[in-house]
Amino acid sequence: MCDLGETNERHEQFMCSMSQTERQRLGRFRRPVDARRFVARRGLRREILARYTGFPPSELRFHDREMQRPALVRNPRTPDIRFSSASSGDLFLLAVACAMDIGVDVERLGAVGDVVACADRICTPAESAWLRSLPVEAWDDALCQLWTRKEALLKALGLGLSRPASTVDVRADRIVIAPPMADHPAPALCIIHSVDVPTGFRAHVAAITTGSEPVVQVYNGP
Question: Is residue 93 in some structural domain?
Answer without folding.
Answer: no
